[in-house]
Structure formats: structure tokens, C-alpha cells
## 1
Amino acid sequence: MATLQTASAPPRAIKQHRVLRSLPYLAPAVFLYGIFLLYPMIDSVRLSFFSWSGYATAPQEFVGLKNYRYLLTQDTVFWTALRNSMIWVVLSVAIPMVLSLLMALALNQRIWGRNAFRSIFYIPSVFASITVAAIWRWIYNPTMGVINQAFEAIGLGGLAHEWLGDPRTALYSIFVASVWQGVGFNMVLFLAGLQSVPAELVDAAKVDGAGRWQVFRNVTWPALRPTTIVVVILTIINSLKVYDLVVGMTGGGPAQSSQVLALWSYQQSFSNHNFGAGGAVATVLLILSLCLVVPYLAWSMRGED
């Protein structure tokens, strides 16, 4: 009887019934999500309108937009961090994505040892970021580092450089370590996307005389659209919140040249004991993330439709 009643019910009622029935199973996850993610996010935005040193005994004084005016007019480090974060986003979307796609296309072919190469390229993405920072800090060591030692060995000692100690190269040196760590993860995503490319379409294109570039442009690339959307969104978000590598390799130096928004928010709050300014930087980072991700997602979904 219950089955007959459910079958005769309108689709909207059935959908509402399923939603209500699933709520008890979703409640624990929603509760944890709210406690550990939503509440800190909302409280950080709230603190951006207050002046507070972070001590429990210190009062929280409402100051309105004072923290934002301070960031925009007096805090020169904020503008350096904002510029570096945007440079990181642009480079991350351009370089690692292209490399990971090329690696996925190569390792999707029937070549000797491709499973071993897949594992080798993916392993760095499993390492903790602070471990990657320690590895690359040793690689960049000005006296015993692998890079400078290699230059000395081949007679190009003049190219040896203090990579992390030079304000002109510090940020880009950290970015190279980020590429080494993250390109394997994107490669795996693209490899998964390549498995969904219909083989019959590829074969049909080859029968029609299409070359490799034409097959990629007209068959493979359109089929990779959903994967590309995911990779771009994850790349933008991870680029804006980069923190561990910068802390582990330079701490934002030298002379704040490698400072980024996520690190500056932390330092304002916990090092300078200015939780209002730290919350303001975090809020700007949140707004920036939404301004980059939401329009791209809306555009990509419209193109999908």
C-alpha cells in the first residue's frame, strides 16, 4: 500500500519526502561543517569590523570600516601580498595546467612504464606542503643546493644564485616548488577525463583523415571540458590560499617580497595581534575568491547549456 501511495504521489512530494528522509544522515556532516568552516568564516568577517588584540581579557571595539581603510591607504604590505597572490593565480592557471595536460596526454598513450611514470609524477602531491618546502629549501641552498652545485659542475658558476634570498626571485622560486608538488594531481584529473573521451569518435576522426592536432582540438578538448572546469576552479582556490610553502621557504621575505594574502592575514592576527586587520585581509581574500570563481563557473555552465 505504501508503495502504491508513493507511486501515485506527485514528483515534487516524492522529492520533498526523500530530502526529509536524508536529513538525519546529513545532520552530523552539516554540524561539523558549520562548526569548523562556516562559523570561523563568518566570525572572521565580523572581526574585520572590530579592533581586537586576540586576548580573551581584551575588549572588542567596533570600528566599522577602519580596518579596510587602513589596508587600502596605509598597509603597503597588503598591496604587495595582493599583487603576489594575483601573480600566483595567473601563473598557476597558465603553467601547471598546461604541463599537467601535456603529461596526461603523453601518459595516456601505450608507452613502456607509463604506470610507473604516473606514480612518480603523482607522488609529490601526496607530500605535506611543509615537507615540500624543506626539500626545495635544500635544493635552493646557495652553497650546498643541487641547483647551484649543478651550475658549478658544468662550468656555469656565474649562474649560481641565492634564489630564496633575492627579492626578485624568491616568489618565483617558491612557485617552481608549487608546480613540482601540484602538477601530478592535475595530471591525474586530466587522465580521468581522457578515459571518458569516446574512442569511436577518435577512430572516426582518424578515418576521416584528421591529424593528431585536429583530433585533440575537435574531439579530445571538448570532451575534457568538465574536467577542465574542475581543474581551473581548484587551481584558482588553491592559488589564493597558498600558505604552507611560503611559510616553510621564506616566511614572506626577504623584505616581504614573497608575501601573500593568506600569510599576511595570519601574521596580522597572530604575530601583530591585530585580529581586525587580519580579518579584513581574510575577508578581501574571500571576496577575491568569489569574484574569480563564481563568474568563471557561471560562464562555464552557460557554455555547457
Note: Residues 1-7 have pLDDT under 50 and may be disordered.
## 2
Amino acid sequence: MSIGNSSADAEADDRPSIGRALQQARISAGLTVDEVSSTTRVRIPILHAIEQDDFSRCGGDVYARGHIRTLAVTVGLDPAVLLARYDAERGGRPAPTPAAPVFDAERIRPEPRRPNWTAAMVAAIVAVVGFVGFTLFNGGAKSTNGSVAADSPSAKPSASPSRKLPSGKPADPKAEPSGKAIAGAPANKVTVKLAADHGQTWMSAKDHNGRLLEEGVLKQGDSKTFTDNTRIDLVLGNAGAVRLFVNGKEVKNVGDKGQVQRLSYTKGDPVAG
């Protein structure tokens, strides 16, 4: 029995610390401390302290747990595992405090809004008045048209709505909707669309001048589109989670789960530059 416990303790001792695990995951994701700080809004000195397993600068266990959760999600780790280790090392999870909602904002749900009966009544009255006016107007118009047709033998019926042009097309043709969101991307520009269909990822997009267009965590189900006259440069922290469209065409095999990809696209792609 003691041998089994010793083996488990040895395996636990071999695991990297919380701060070391966060640091290794950040480096593996190709992220700098500045990039993580910009994404998470955790100040750089606190980030450095956490990676050295110094949680004293966090302002208490509640804030420390919130920072750990946020950083773990950003670098691709499971926050539940790190939080369980943090609690175990400190004798259990701390009692809830008013500060907890700062980091558990995703659990907060807005109170259901009460129906605005005044606005609904006004809308109903307007609809009724409009319907009555429309009915009276149409009735008068039909009576007038009927008398003209009876008194004037030369009166001709109006053209049928289903009449077709000689070419066989409908009289009022409309453009068919495009099958893809950026299928009509302009040929004189480069257009890149990211869709996080298979998970969330950290991403960064820059134009040809190196100007940052956007960076941060793209959550599952979200999408972003970027356009530039010359080139778009991308960094993907979890390439396997993303569907990528360049100039209206899908790019296959962007990368694997957890793989960091740095990509550039120009007009005429979708072949990576």
C-alpha cells in the first residue's frame, strides 16, 4: 500500500508547477507575454509572477483563480485541472466573495426583460390604422377602375404579374443569392475569413504594413473577416479549430489541433505565401 502511494507522489512531483505549465503552454502556442497580456488584460508584472508560481501579487485567492482560468483558456490548457491543483495546494477552494463574479462573468445571465406593453399597444394601433387606410384606398381605386372599364371600350387590362419577357426571363429578375459569405470577394483585394467551427483559438491578423487589424481569442462558433489591398498575415494558436476561406475559396488542411500556424495570403491565393 505504501509503495503505491509513493509511486503516485513521485508522479505528482514530476508534474510541472502551475506557473511552469502556463509558461510552457504559452511558449508552445507561439505567444509572447505581451500578446497574452493584451488578450487577457492581465498586467505583465502579474503574468511574470504567476509563471514563477508567485500568486501574492494577484490580490487574493479569488483573483488568482480568475487569472489562472483566463490564462489557461488563452494558452490552450484545461483550467479545471490547474484550479484543482491550486485549491489542493492551499487546503481547498476559497469561500465565495463578492469578487468572484469578476472572473465568473460567463455564468451571469441578464435578468429577463419585461415586455414593453406600451410599445406593443402603439404598434398594434398603428397596424390597425394602416390596414384600414389601405383597405379604403384600395376599395376606392377598384371602384374607379371598374367605372372606367365599363364606360370606355378601349380600356385595356393591366399587364399580368406573371407576364414574361421575350427572352423567357421573369419581368422583374433578381440576382440569385451567393452560396458563400465571401464568394463575391473583390478581385483587386485579398479577403480572408476565419470561422472557429471546431473549437476556440487565439488569433492575430495584420495588414501588409504590419498594422494590427485584430488579435484575441476567437470563440467556437464565431467568425472574422479581414480585407487588405495587398496582403493579410495570420497567426493561429489552434489551427485545427479553424475553417479558413481566402478570396472566396476554402483552404483545406489549415493545421492540426493545438498547432500554431503563421500564414500570409495575397490577391490570387488561396496558396499560402
Note: Residues 99-108, 146-181 have pLDDT under 50 and may be disordered.
## 3
Amino acid sequence: MTRPAFYPSSQAATGSSSSVWEGYAYGFLGVLVFSLTLPMTRLAVAELEPLLVGLGRALVAAVPAVALLWLTRARRPNRQEWPGVILAAVGIVVGWPLASSFAMQTVPSSHGAVFNGLLPLSTAAFAALRSGERPSPAFWGWALVGAALVTAYALRQGHGTLALGDLWLLVAVVLGGMGYAEGARASRTLGGARTICWALAISAPVVAAPVGWMAAQANWPGAPVVLACAYLAFGSMFLGFFAWYRGLAVGGIARVGQVQLLQPFLTVVAAAMLFGESVETATFFFAAAVIVVIAGGRRAIVRTKK
């Protein structure tokens, strides 16, 4: 009998060439979805409070998530999987959306794309800490260079000072890396779809009251904002993670995580083409430099604890 895509693939344990390429394919699909997250968030916070945008997407996405868990009679996470699901909820269901929503109030999405270039490095660091790998001194060296590059870019954009949006973006990178790594760890046995569905389900009771109160106070936004919020809920918060977590679980966090190196460029291009943001040449230079740094950092994770 063919196993539906909702369940994890046994190929994850084999490490075969086919499973790696499957992981790359799913990972690239997830990155395509995520690349529009910052531009859509910037559009949404132009008319709505960032708290409502950040938490509201999680509550809306929880509706199909709970329905899918019920219709498929999905099992609950076991004792080993629950920590990963909970930390994924803290990191990518609540933390990253909130921090990035606050950031998009004061900085353009192309600016945020450069900061998000550090997400793969952040994900690798959390994966290393939780999976027993020992990051080499070279890895931490690349990490420091990457942090210095991003700081230099932020200082250049802010004429010598860091904007509040820059600090929110740094918080988003840390929380996002944790959520990606922990969710991927749980997905190895729980499955990518079930992992994000359970993360959304356990978050819903926490965010329901504040979202309901803020929604009652908000003015009805125009159609573009409504569509942006729908994309954030059903694309960025729900369907995108089906592909992303499955890709990480099947092909490996370190390998498939490299696909995310394309995200800064995709976000910058999308911001320019869809929303008319002006993107200076320096942004492309810093985005490329961050990608080079992350690629070097990836190769430095080579040792595993016995």
C-alpha cells in the first residue's frame, strides 16, 4: 500500500541518493514559499498591528492544521518528539512571525532578506547543539564573519546606528533557526506535515484570546492586505512547512538547509518586482557575501560526538 505524503518517508533513514534529491526538491519548494513572507508581512503591517499579523497567521493556519490531524487520525507526538514540536511552535509559529512583523514596520523587506541570509547558519548551529555534532573552530569563525557582515550592512543602512527593526530581525533569525532545527528533528519520526500541524494546534489556545481582542479593535483592511494575510497563514505558516520539514527530514538538515541560501535573492527580487521596493546594488553585494559565509560555515560542521 502506498504511504500518503502526510506520513514520514522511510527513506530518511537510508541516506540514499534518491532521498537526498527528494529532500532538495521539497526544500526548494519550501524556500519558494518562504521567500515571499517578508514582502507580504510588510504589506500587512502597513494597515494592521504587527501583533495581530504575527499571531493572527498562526491562529488562522491552526484551523486547517487541526482539521487535517482529525481527518487523518494522526497520532500524537511521543515523549521524544514533544520537545521538538513545542520548540518549533515557540520558534516559527509565534517567535519568528512576531519578531519579523515588528521589524517590517521600520525596515524594507529587501533589508530583512540580508538578515535572513543568516537563518541557515542559525539552523545549523541549533542542529549541531541538539544532534551531538561538534562545530569546529572554523565553523564559529565563519559565524563571526557572517555576523560582522550583517552588522556592517545594518550600520551602513542606518548611517552608523542600528535601527530597532535590525534588532527584531536578529531575534527573528535566532528564533527561526531554533524552530527550523527542532521541527526538523521531530519530523524525522513524526513527519513534516504532522510536526507543523501539532505545533499550530498547541499554539492556537495561547494566541486565540489576544488575536480575538485585537481583531475586534482593528479596522477592516483592503483586499491586498487580506490577500497578504491569507498568504502568510496558508502559505508561509502552513503549506510551506509541509515541504520544508519533509525536505530536511528526508535529505538531512545540513544538506537540504543549504537550499535556503537562495532565499535572500528570491526575497529581494520579489520585493522589487511585486511591490516596487528600490533595491540598491549594495544589498545584492551583502546578500552574496552572506551566502558565501554561510556556505563556508556549512562545510565546517564535520565532527560528531561519540
Note: Residues 223-251 form the longest helix (29 residues).
## 4
Amino acid sequence: MTVTPLGIPRRLLEFTLDGEPVRAPEGSTILDACRAAGKDVPTLCEGDTLTPKNACRVCVVEVEGARTLVPACSRKAESGMEVRTGTERARHSRKVVLELLASSVDLSTTPRVAEWLKEYEAKPDRFGPDAARVNEEPRVDNDLYVRDYGKCILCYKCVDACGDQWQNTFAISVAGRGFDARIAVEHDAPLTDSACVYCGNCIEVCPTGALSFKSEFDMREAGTWDESRQTRTTTVCAYCGVGCNLTLHVQDNEIVKVTSPHDNPVTHGNLCIKGRFGYQHVQNRD
């Protein structure tokens, strides 16, 4: 008989969320509590497998007694606190952040951003045609994935996934300062000349499509990428005995990319180069 360990139960905290009393396990963030209560607080830089970086500031909320708005993704819930998610101050802050991001980078492949721009009545074009933009050409220097930094919002999720939070390869980091800050490999070299091991875990956490499978990039360029026609099937990687779970994204009977479930206790969304990119033999028709 298999026994599943339940772990140590966590004490429940009681506080007020938008005027309603709620309970959340000790250690939960305000964002965790909002999601459990069915409240839709937008966020871009938060990742369910990474330590929050507080980079995008889209998830800010008001906490009674706090001088400034606080990021819901990292602020821990506390007993007795009063949190308000939809105040005019919080909504205005999100609106400005979305306007600044959308005016400087291409958010066309960022999930839900179009919805949020409409909800918060954000107008990125109000800064005028001379607003500074990150107009970088996509970097296609290998056959596995593409770096399109014209879509990068500097959320640091790829840096953390490549660094001490998961892969420990440290192939990528932030180069430059201010508006010249960029995600780059050492000496801004081609990916093939870097320490990258092509695990693709940076692609898994990228929220904007700045990092993508080359197969997806090519299909988007050709206008054939259509997620509504794709199926997802989770299976077990057969390359070794670790037991990593793979989710195969299939369109028109072809695997177009591979992800991994974030709630899987083995992988937590991470894979190696074989698991993420070694699927071509499955559909070799020769």
C-alpha cells in the first residue's frame, strides 16, 4: 500500500481581503490568498516555481498602514491585515505600469495583456511616437530556441531559472544599466558560444515569449501557430530513469513544443535538453 505523506499542517491566518474575512495558510503570499478567493490580480514576473523578484509591479495592492503599495506576489499574509486589491490607487499604478511596458516592448505574445490593457484603460500610445522602444531583432543562432529581446520585460525569471534556483548553469544574466539593461550571455556572444546547456528551463518561465522554441517562432512567422488547434498530452520521458513528465503540444499531428507540469514533484516544470528538445525522432517520417 502506498502512503502519501501529508506534511506538517500550517496554521491558518485570518485577515481582511476587500472587506471580506479570509483565511490563508501561514507563509502564503497575498497573491496566494487572492487566487484562493477567486480574485484576479494581474502579474507578469511571478512564477509558481521561482522566488518572487518584485520586478514588474503589476500585482500591487494596498495594505492598511503601509506607506506604499505592496507587491502581492511577495508580501506575506499576516493575521489582522487589511488588504484592498481594487482601489483607485492600485488600479492607477497597474495602468501606468502596463502603459510603460507596452510602450517600450512588444507584448503581442504575452498572455492576457490585451485583456488587462482594456480592463485598466491603459493607453501605451499616449507617450507619443518618439517613446523609446527596445527594437531588437530576434536572435536566431541555433536550431532549438530563439531569443527575441524586443519582447523582454526584464522580469529576471530566466536568470533565476538558469542560476541558483534551478539549473545552476549561470549562462545568462543582466548586462548594462538603466534603459540599456539587457538579458545576455557572457560577452553578449551567440548562444552557441556560451555556457548554455539548452535545457530550455528559461523558456518554461518566460512570461512574454521573449524566449521561445524555434518551432513556435517559425510557425508564428509563417502565421500557422494556432493554440486553439493544439492538444496537450502528458507522458513520461523515456531517455533515462528519472521519470520526468513531458507535456507534448501537438498541432496537425506534429509535436510543436514540449513543456513539463509545474506541479510534478520530480521536475517542477524543469527538463534537460533531451526531454525538452529531443522529440524529433517521434515524428520522423523517413
Note: The mean pLDDT is 92.
